[in-house]
Amino acid sequence: MKGIKVILQEDIRWLRCDIKSVSLLPVVLANQKASEAGAAEAILVRDGKITEGTHTNFLAVKDEMVFTAPLSNLILEGITRRVALELCKKLKINFREEFISINKLKDFDEFFITSTTKEITPVVKIDNWTVSNGIPGKVTMYLQSEFKKLIADY
């Protein structure tokens, strides 16, 4: 997979994002902006920190360590996110659950999103910034490959 483009959008949702509800208007609006920008997903930002995508969880890699927002009332825990972190444990890939500051995005080596429908998908463009020359990172590709093997067994 070549990877996808995402855009950053202010997270204007209520403060109980961990509850799956029908109050989806902010997500629909952010997703529409992503579509209009030629992006596959909008990544939500609250107080300068990435929370999650409109339909996905967002993860970053720096020095082969995976980072993602911690579970809290600001994100909906994704099943695929959980499986990806379990794969990290199994494959001895270190990870941290901490917020990613948008001011430090360019310090990271690679990015990916997770969801039931997108599985593990590399992100190669954020807004107008091309990440790593538009080439998916090796940690992302390794996790994607191992994830595909895992679900093939079901």
Can you describe this structure?
Strands 1, 2, 3, 4, 5, 6, 7, 8, 9 and 10 form a ten-stranded mixed beta sheet that branches. The longest helix is centred in the last third of the chain and has 15 residues, at 138-152. The chain contains three helices and ten strands; from the N terminus they run E-H-E-E-E-E-H-E-E-E-E-E-H. The chain has helices at residues 25-36, 79-91, 138-152, and strands at 4-10, 41-46, 49-53, 57-62, 65-68, 95-97, 100-101, 110-115, 119-126, 129-130. Helix 2 links the parallel strand 5 and strand 6 (95-97). It is globular. The chain has a single domain (4-152), classed as D-amino Acid Aminotransferase, subunit A, domain 2 (D-amino Acid Aminotransferase, Chain A, domain 2), CATH 3.20.10.10. By secondary structure, it is of the alpha/beta class. Helix content is 26%, strand content 32%.
